[in-house]
Amino acid sequence: MLNDEITAIAGKYKKRKRVGRGKGSGHGKTCGRGHKGQNSRPGTTARATYEGGQMPLFRRLPKRGFNNYNFARRFEIVNISQLEKIFDDGSAIDVQGLVAAGLVDNAASKVKVLGDGELTKKLSVTAHKFSKSAEQKIAGCGGSAKVVA
User: Fold this and answer.
1) I want to staple 46 with a disulfide (CB 3.0 to 4.6 A). Which of 50, 54, 71, 84 is the partner?
2) 70 lies in some domain
3) Among the three residues 39, 64, 89, which one is the final residue of a domain in this structure?
4) What is the per-residue pLDDT for 73?
5) What integer pLDDT is reported at residue 92 of this predicted model?
């Protein structure tokens, strides 16, 4: 008999375990939970990382390496194409203007202008950082790119 033929005899699906239905079922009385203790009680579930009270693995392993999360400078990104769509020719754009236009979430955040898209308008843009291509496109249309100190 091959392994793939066994289901025809034994049945394709396993029966559901019915607990608490008498001695004859094999799952009567304590219903497979053992005697007493936290896990014998109803409604208890141990969290996935719980190891029975021994020192957990993540605390046994040493901390190694450097994490840049607390030191990284994060910028909100605005593309040239977005400035082209929203602002008029000759506009002076700063962080407050970008917040008002809905391109930046918060006036306190740092803004970087990237050069994705085409620019045909003369704009005076003030931001915290510019990519080289963004600076070239702004200057190419006769505008100016000022960096906030």
Assistant:
1) 50
2) no
3) 64
4) 92
5) 95
103 found inside a domain: yes
Residue 22 backbone phi and psi in degrees, to 5: 95, 165
Total number of domains constituting the chain: 2
Q: Is the pLDDT of residue 106 over 70?
A: yes
Residues 53 and 95 reside in one and the same domain: no
Helices (H), the chain: 6-10, 57-60, 80-86, 95-101, 132-140
Looking at the DSSP bridge assignments, the partners of residue 111 are 76
CB atoms within 10 A of CB 104: 21
Q: Which contacts qualify for 124-127: CB closer than 8 Å, 24 or more apart? A: 124/91, 124/92, 124/93, 125/83, 125/93, 126/92, 126/93, 126/94, 126/95, 127/78, 127/94, 127/95, 127/98
Considering 64, 95, 116, which residue would you say is the last residue of a domain? Answer: 64
Round to the nearest angstrom and report the end-to-end CA distance of the chain.
Answer: 80
pLDDT, tens only, 50-93: 998 999 999 999 999 999 999 999 999 999 999 999 999 999 99
